[in-house]
């Protein structure tokens, strides 16, 4: 079987999250498992594929979710798709979040926009074995109240013992009574011990850049900051060349990197 | 290494015999050589062809499969005649990319099944600089048979079991070799190397060992902007480079079937790194030009301790606006950043 050919995966459910973000639930024909943080290439047959990180709990091996924002050619087609159609799937690719390195730690998770999707997979993994971790602190920023994904789940998560959730929006509206400001504004007075903490960041590049700088200011060490990078990953195997960053291929060596491993590479935020 | 002699007319006979099992590819032309299928005649190419041999191992465009089923196809392997040392050196890079796990099976089958009958360079082009990179102008690795022209035939070196098998199957065509002829070939090889060095000496190019640092330490050098302003993004440097390996996966629809295909791609094209959201790390031509040099002289050097450059000069030859790798390295060696 060629490494470039996808397997069949049925789209069994579509959940509308926001006006331009939907969660798609898939049931792969030949079985599939992934580690949280790994990504897949999802094919819209006849049109092409695009990289996405699953947003569901990897402990569920029968189905998996991908939360997708409508931004390009393939994602626009996916947003028009109906339940029951068969799509293509390759992967999983790359290295996921190193959960073993988070044991007995305070875990700060910072998400921006649809960047909460891969982090939901991480959160659900952590919740499944929550006794192994000290504390889980989630800080999430969206553009506006209408752009917040997983609204109901965010409320549910905040009720879990050892879990602390704070949400902010860049711009509020008449319904919004919560925090207003960029996600960096809710990174103060964090209820955790920075000397025994790790932080995981996922969102648009500009958000990851300023969050990383803020975390460094707060005293996080570069090796304790994990970033989910995204480039034009195509083959997923470190062969097609599109996603090189310094000595790494994001698809093969990432997409999750410690900041200490990439901080000396030029233009990492572009 | 086992060595034979083959007369010119018998070499034609060998190619005719190989045609039974292989798509025999030979060079043709007088000053520039192009690849074509062998029919009846053969001309020995004095130096490398215009395009590299990459196309015979990783086609410029191919259908990978009809999904959700693999496309089954029968294809005769290639016998590539006239590949040069620079072409063969590039297999170090291509093998690293496509034979690393998980392997590209089409590439692997081509590597296993293709036959390589390489040849010495008995002359060189103005743009050739292989010896600067310690690549000799005659093959030492990766060939099945290698031919060096002499008198009315060729000295044949056997470089693999597959090559040995070809000789055995066609043993009537081969003769024992006269030792004087081997000495004559050795002498010509030395002269070719001397001539190449003499050609390069006047160009005053930086030494091989300095190239890695020249790229690593000159990320912000002016030369990238200066040279890239000339670039028209035709992609000739990418398409002709033997070590370039980047490709694009794309889909198409054919009646009821879905086809997945691959075509060569490259970092000099504007959308190479563009993502759906619009971000493009290599948004400027200067970034893209620099990227090409970083990939070849920094990335692969760190991975393999090899430069992904064979000194074939094809990027120089094919560039319609005269962007010249040699000039870029010379300029980098004089640049301010480097002098600091």
Architecture overview:
With 270 residues, chain A is α/β, with parallel strands linked by helices. Chain A has 2 domains: 7-93, Elongation Factor Tu (Ef-tu), domain 3, CATH 2.40.30.10; 99-228, 3-Layer(aba) Sandwich (Rossmann fold). Chain A has 6 helices and 15 strands. Chain A has helices spanning 73-80, 116-128, 151-158, 205-218, 250-253, 259-262; strands spanning 7-16, 21-28, 39-44, 48-52, 64-69, 86-93, 106-112, 135-142, 163-169, 179-180, 197-202, 225-228, 244-245, 248-249, 256-258. The model of chain A has no long low-confidence stretch (mean pLDDT 95). Chain B is α/β, with parallel strands linked by helices and 340 residues long. Chain B folds into 2 domains: 3-201, no CATH class; 208-339, no CATH class. Helices cover 36% and strands 19% of the residues of chain B. Chain B is built from 12 helices and 11 strands. Chain B has an 8-stranded mixed beta sheet with strand order 3-2-5-6-7-8-1-9, sandwiched between helices. The longest helix of chain B is centred in the middle third of the chain and has 23 residues, at 179-201. The mean pLDDT of chain B is 94. At the A-B interface, strand 4, helix 1 and strand 13 of A face strand 4, strand 10, strand 11 and helix 9 of B.
Structural class of chain B: alpha/beta
Gap between N and C termini of chain B: 49 Å
Please indicate the count of domains of chain A: 2
- The percent range for strand residues of chain A is 25-35%
Question: What is the CATH architecture descriptor of the largest domain in chain A?
Answer: 3-Layer(aba) Sandwich
Could you state the order of secondary-structure elements of chain B as H and E?
Answer: EHEEEEHHEEEHEHHHHEEHHHH
Strand-pairing-aware structural class of chain A: alpha/beta
* SS field, number of helical segments of chain B: 12
Please describe the biggest sheet of chain A, giving its number of strands, its sense, and whether it closes into a barrel.
7 strands, mixed
When the domains of chain B are counted, the total is 2
The overall average pLDDT of chain B, rounded, is: 94
Low-confidence stretches of chain B: none
CATH topology of the largest domain in chain A: Rossmann fold
Q: Count of DSSP helices of chain A? A: 6
Largest interface: A-B, 42 and 45 residues
What does the overall shape of chain A look like?
A: globular
Per DSSP E runs of 2 or more residues, the count of β-strands of chain A stands at 15
Q: Tell me, what's the shape of chain B?
A: globular
């Amino acid at each position: 079987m060629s490494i470039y050919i996808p397997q069949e995966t049925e789209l069994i459910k579509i959940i509308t999250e926001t006006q331009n973000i939907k969660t798609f639930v898939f049931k792969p024909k030949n079985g599939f498992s992934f580690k949280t943080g790994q990504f897949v290439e999802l094919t819209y047959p006849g049109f092409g594929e695009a990289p996405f990180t699953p947003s569901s709990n990897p402990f569920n091996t029968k189905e998996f979710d991908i939360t997708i924002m409508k931004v390009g050619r393939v994602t626009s087609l996916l947003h028009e798709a109906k339940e029951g159609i068969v799509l293509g799937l390759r992967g999983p690719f790359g290295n996921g979040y190193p959960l073993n390195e988070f044991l007995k730690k305070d875990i700060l998770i910072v998400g921006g926009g649809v960047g909460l999707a891969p982090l939901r997979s991480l959160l659900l993994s952590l919740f499944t074995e929550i006794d192994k971790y000290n504390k889980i602190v989630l800080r999430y920023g969206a553009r506006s109240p209408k752009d917040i994904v997983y609204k109901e789940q965010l409320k549910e998560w905040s009720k879990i013992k050892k879990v602390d959730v704070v949400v902010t929006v860049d711009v509020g509206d008449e319904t919004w009574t919560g925090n207003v400001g960029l996600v960096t504004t809710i990174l103060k007075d964090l209820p955790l011990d920075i000397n025994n903490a790790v932080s995981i960041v996922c969102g648009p590049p500009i958000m990851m850049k300023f969050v990383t700088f803020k975390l460094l200011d707060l005293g996080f060490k570069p090796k304790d900051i994990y970033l989910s990078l995204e480039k034009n990953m195509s083959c997923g195997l470190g062969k097609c060349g599109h996603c090189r960053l310094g000595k790494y291929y994001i698809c093969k060596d990432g997409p999750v990197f410690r900041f200490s491993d990439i901080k000396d590479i030029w233009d990492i935020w572009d | 290494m086992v060595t034979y002699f083959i007369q010119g007319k018998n070499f034609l006979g060998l190619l005719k015999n190989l045609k039974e099992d292989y798509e025999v590819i030979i060079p043709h032309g007088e000053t520039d050589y192009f690849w074509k299928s062998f029919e009846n005649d053969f001309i020995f190419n004095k130096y490398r062809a215009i395009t590299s041999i990459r196309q015979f191992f990783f086609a410029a465009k191919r259908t990978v499969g009809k999904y959700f089923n693999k496309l089954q196809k029968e294809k005769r392997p290639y016998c590539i005649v006239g590949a040069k040392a620079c072409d063969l050196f590039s297999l170090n890079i291509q093998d690293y990319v496509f034979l690393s796990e998980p392997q590209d099976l089409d590439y692997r089958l081509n590597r296993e099944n293709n036959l390589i009958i390489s040849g010495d360079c008995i002359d060189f082009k103005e743009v050739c600089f292989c010896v600067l990179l310690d690549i000799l102008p005659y093959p030492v690795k990766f060939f099945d048979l290698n031919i060096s022209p002499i008198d009315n035939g060729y000295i044949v070196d056997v470089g693999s079991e597959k090559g040995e098998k070809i000789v055995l199957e066609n043993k009537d065509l081969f003769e024992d070799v006269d030792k004087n002829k081997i000495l004559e070939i050795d002498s010509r090889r030395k002269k070719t190397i001397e001539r190449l060095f003499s050609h390069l000496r006047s160009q005053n190019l930086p030494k091989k060992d300095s190239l890695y640092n020249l790229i690593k330490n000159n990320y912000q050098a002016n030369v990238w902007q200066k040279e890239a302003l000339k670039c028209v993004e035709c992609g000739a440097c990418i398409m002709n480079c033997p070590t370039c390996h980047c490709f694009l996966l794309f889909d198409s629809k054919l009646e009821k079937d879905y086809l997945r295909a691959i075509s060569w791609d490259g970092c000099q094209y504007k959308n190479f790194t563009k993502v759906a959201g619009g971000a493009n790390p290599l948004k400027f031509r200067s970034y893209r030009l620099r990227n090409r040099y970083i990939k070849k002289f920094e990335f692969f050097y760190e991975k393999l301790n090899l430069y992904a450059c064979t000194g074939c000069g094809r990027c120089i030859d094919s560039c319609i606006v005269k962007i010249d790798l040699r000039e870029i390295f010379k300029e980098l060696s004089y640049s301010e950043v480097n002098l600091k």
